[in-house]
Specification:
Layout: H1 3-28, E1 44-47, E2 50-53, E3 58-64, E4 67-72, H2 78-87, E5 95-96, E6 101-104, H3 110-147, H4 153-186
Antiparallel strand pairs: 1-2, 3-4, 4-6, 5-6
Helix pairs in contact: 1-3, 1-4, 3-4
Length: 188
């Protein structure tokens, strides 16, 4: 196989890995039956006029299965953090004792679990589409190289087959991540 085809495959694999990483980061913020710092760490807080991720402003811990505690490095930011939590789509009510914010998580209802699974499935489909778009773009590139006689027809065919195998591998990875997340959400 030609260097050009290998380069296209390498680039495609890098972009597919990025799609998987983005999916995993997003799904980390989707609530399961247990508390997790990932639920709130990326929450943007208006801090001295600048949107700042919560993990840069406070230490976040999970002392119990259904409780997250947030201890700001700067106590004057307690109100800002509380406001950000209330305005988020987490639907959680923070408790503030002047030093620390306690975020109790109510147990998930069956309906809420189903909604979360739908959200996860939507994100999974977006990731699959992203992977397939990388495949489509890369195959177009390989065909263009063949048309310009930069690579042989055999190299083109070989490259397209390898691109399909790569795509299948990453779509399977997306499916496995989804299955795992769905089990976490549905576990009581």
């Amino acid at each position: 196989m030609s260097d050009e085809t290998n380069e296209i495959l390498k680039d495609a694999e890098g972009r597919m890995k990025s799609a998987i990483t983005a999916l995993e980061e997003h799904l980390a913020g989707v609530r399961t039956g247990r508390a997790s710092p990932a639920l709130v760490e990326k929450l943007m807080v208006e801090y001295y006029g600048t949107p700042t991720p919560l993990y840069q402003m406070a230490s976040i811990s999970v002392p119990e299965a259904l409780l997250i505690t947030i201890k700001p490095f700067d106590k004057s930011s307690l109100r800002d953090i509380e406001k950000a939590i209330l305005n988020s789509d987490l639907h959680l009510t923070p408790g503030n004792d002047g030093t620390i914010i306690r975020l109790p998580l109510p147990p998930l209802t069956g309906d809420r679990r189903k909604e979360l699974v739908k959200l996860v499935n939507h994100r999974l489909e977006e990731a699959r589409v992203a992977v397939r778009n990388v495949r489509r773009h890369s195959i177009e590139e390989i065909r263009e190289y063949e048309k310009e006689s930069l690579i042989s027809e055999d190299d083109s065919q070989d490259g397209q087959e390898k691109m399909q195998k790569l795509t299948d591998k990453y779509v399977e990875t997306v499916d496995a991540i989804g299955k795992r997340k769905e089990q976490e959400i549905m576990a009581v």
